[in-house]
Amino acid sequence: MTLKEPVEPSRTFQPLAVFGLVARGAVMGVAEVLPGISGGTVALILGVYERMVGALSKLALVSKDLVQMKWTSLRQLLEPLVVLVPLLLGMLIGAFVAINTIVHLVDAHYVFVSGAIFGMVLGAIVFTFRASTLNRLFLFLPLGLIVSLAIVFLPQSDSPAGWILIYVGGFLAFGAWILPGISGSLLLLILGLWHTMLEAFHSLDWLKMLLFLTGILTGWLVFSHPVKVLLERYRTSVIAVFCGLLLGSLWKVWPWREEGFPVLPHQYEGNAEIVAVILLMIAGFGLVMVLSHVYTKNSS
Q1: Phi-psi region for residue 279, left (φ > 0), alpha (ψ -120 to 50) or beta?
Q2: Which of 13, 115, 169, 218 could cross-link 193 (Cys pair, CB 3.0–4.6 Å)?
Q3: 107-161 pLDDT per residue, tens
């Protein structure tokens, strides 16, 4: 009597699993539109990050084989697509909703939205702190903090974005997206591209969209496999760097600002709405804590 080999779950169609990936992708899509918490951080909290990175890496390697006419690699194409297609669909849905709704809230109620984002980033810091070890945090957290602050303090440009800059923005945005820590939208904001690309996608400016998406495609080919290898070999060290990146980004998402610099609520010239903003900070922090608790429970 011979035993049958168990069927791998990843190769069977599971509607609930597909729906779960679409839902996670939608949350990631919303997060990526806002210059605060990154889609990579959300993926990490929702428990899909390593599957996503593995699938991106696998797809990049298979694509390179197909370019070299190694047609036997076609058999490996389904495995990453089963993960990436539902995630991408969810991200497109989430980004579409965010661009058409949340962006208007940012314009009208910046302090409130920033308060919620600030709380979410604080929660993500706690999550990444717990996911690493003290000795790795001591060694690598400062590195992430320095890199994050260096990006945050880059001079912003208000001039119209050039075509090359849009391509570079897409390239760097993918690198930020795949790394939990810095938001791709935050990098676009620093480069002076955030409003430009929001308007481009909202008004369907196909030339700008194509340049930006080409940059994202290049970023995928460059970043996906190295990130997978780093996570497999140096997970706690990489997570410690992410924690530092998040700490540095707090400067950028502080809700009360004057001329681009953080100020205390009583120094804010507009309506500070201190109580409401603090409540939104708590809500954002609590949301991330709940999501991280679910992730920890499911992965244990």
Answers
A1: alpha
A2: 169
A3: 788 889 889 888 888 887 888 888 889 999 999 999 988 987 887 776 655 455 4
